[in-house]
Design a protein that fits this description.
Number of strands: 6
Strand order of the largest sheet: 1-6-3-5-4-2
Number of helices: 10
């Protein structure tokens, strides 16, 4: 079977019941699930494949049966292209496309111990016009758009973290300033500076953990909503948004660092002020 990307010139037309009665004499093809949903086709339907649109019978047209519906792979490079795919027997594809023994590209699977570089050199020297690439290079070339998007998101994330840190520090300073009388009373009662700072830092850490938990729950729910929408839109099993354990660990660690740092800076600024001055005297 050969994977064949349907162009606009490939026509599939549902045949009549009379043609379906001769199903035992027909060969089979497989179509992807997006094509089946768009054309309202199912396994067992009889269709006609042709290199010319319009439903005109030609010598290269052939009636076939849909033998299987194939699930689409999670390939980011194919999400927005909207190609409709059909798997055909090689001789069927040769006859319908009119290519004969020519191919545009083909893939070779190698064993893990095979020297890939030697095979590439041998293929490139078989004949003029051959050019072989390892799959890793092809993946890199087809993923450049996604690399740019990833860098853009990383830049947005860095800017957001910096802005959040400044905002968090300001909030903590204001919150601690509101409790200046309480802190002054604790100081006059004989509570040490380190105990006051420790209590404020612990409180900041607890608030940071609570905020992090709420953020993770919100991110997980948003990820489910994004995947539900775009999977249905592009008819693909590709995960557009994921929440992984490394992301959760990074979020928790960063939240604790920022929360403890903001609480420490705010408390140190306040405990260094004399208690009576905190009371406004």
């Amino acid at each position: 079977m050969l994977l064949f990307a349907l162009a606009s010139s490939l026509l599939l037309q549902v045949s009549s019941p009379a043609a379906q009665s001769r199903a035992g004499e027909l060969r089979t093809i497989a179509i992807d699930e997006a094509f089946a949903a768009q054309a309202h086709l199912k396994v067992g339907d009889t269709v006609t494949v042709s290199a010319r649109p319009g439903g005109t019978k030609t010598p290269d047209s052939e009636a076939v049966i849909i033998g299987a519906i194939v699930r689409r792979g999670a390939d980011p490079s194919e999400v927005a292209r909207g190609d409709l795919r059909v798997r055909m027997h090689l001789d069927q594809l040769q006859r319908v496309s009119g290519y004969g023994d020519r191919v545009d590209r083909f893939a070779i699977a190698t064993a893990p111990s095979t020297p890939v570089s030697e095979i590439i050199d041998r293929i490139n020297h078989v004949a003029f016009g051959f050019k072989a690439y390892p799959s890793r290079e092809i993946a890199v070339e087809t993923s450049r758009t996604f690399q740019v998007v990833s860098r853009f998101h990383r830049a947005i994330g860095v800017i957001t973290i910096v802005a959040t840190s400044v905002f968090l520090l300001c909030i903590m300073v204001l919150k601690v300033e509101e409790r200046r009388r309480d802190i002054a009373a604790l100081r006059l009662m004989g509570i040490s500076r380190s105990s006051v700072v420790r209590s404020i830092v612990i409180e900041s850490a607890l608030v940071a953990v609570l905020g992090c938990v709420l953020g993770i729950v919100l991110g997980w729910a948003t990820s489910l909503l994004v995947n539900w929408h775009y999977k249905a839109l592009y008819r693909t099993p590709l995960e557009f948004s994921i929440v992984t354990p490394p992301i959760v660990a990074f979020a928790v660690g960063l939240s604790l660092i920022l929360g403890i740092g903001a609480g420490l800076l705010a408390s140190l600024r306040l405990v260094r002020t004399p208690p009576l001055q905190l009371f406004g005297r």
